[in-house]
Each structure stands twice: as structure tokens, then as C-alpha cells.
Amino acid sequence: MISMPVVIDDEELKFEGDEGEEGLALPLSEGKRTIRTKSADPEIESLYGKHKRGKLVLQPHFQRLFVWDRAKASKLIESALLAVPLPIIYLAEETDGKELVIDGQQRLTSISRWETVPAHWIESAP
Fold it and tell me: In this predicted model, what pLDDT tens digit does every residue of 3-22 receive, in sequence order?
């Protein structure tokens, strides 16, 4: 696991195209913020368990709704069963310890909806 703090000065934080757009400013606190990143390789079962316990929020207010069809979700599950590496997901930790999905919501929602597969299938996957 790698953890690297990054300090950002809120006054220097600007986004392209936000000039003159009143009312769209983010409610950022004054001063500096610390962003910590860490690289991890969580198991699907661990992420699924966090979701079921309410510790992983798949649909935060800023996420679009689930749009994948069954075929696409099925291909993801097949890839996981074949031990094909899945793309990176990005999470943000809230002050209450919950993690919000920033990127990977379609994949994680597909996995969370796939509840009827016997555990021995997952354990015996190559």
C-alpha cells in the first residue's frame, strides 16, 4: 500500500470553463486541504461485504444511475471468475468512515446485484 499526502491551496483550485458561472462554486473550506491516496487490491468479497454493511456507497448523489445491461454485467462477472484483472476503482472516504464510489459504480453495482452465485464457484475460479 502506498500513501502519499498532497496539499492543495483552495485559492489555486480552478477548473476550465468555470469563469463567469455564478452559483456553481463548490463549498470548499478556506485554507489548505490534504488529499491522501493509497493503492490497494481489495477482493471482490471484501467490497461486496462493505456495501452490504452500508460502508460502501455505490450511488452517491453525484453518480449517474446504473445503466449497464445484463450482457455487460455478465461479461464483468465472467472476467472476475476467470481471474482477469478488473479496472481500477476510485473511492473517497467520508469523515464518518463510509466510502463513496467516485469511479467504478457500474462495475461494483453489477457485482452487488450478482448475489445468487454459490461461494464455491468464486473460490474455485482460476
Answer: 555 555 555 556 565 555 55
Structural domain spans, the chain: 3-123
**Residue whose C-alpha cell reads 456495501 in the numeric block:** 51
pTM, two decimal places: 0.64
Rounded to whole angstroms, how far apart are CA atoms 39 and 125? 24
Cβ neighbours around 104 below 10 Å, total: 17
Torsion-angle region of 113 (φ positive above 0: left; ψ -120 to 50: alpha; else: beta):
alpha
Contact between residue 105 and residue 66 where contact means Cβ atoms under 8 Å apart = yes
**55-81 burial string, b = 16+ CB within 10 Å, else e?**
ebbbeeeebeeeebeeeebeebbeebe
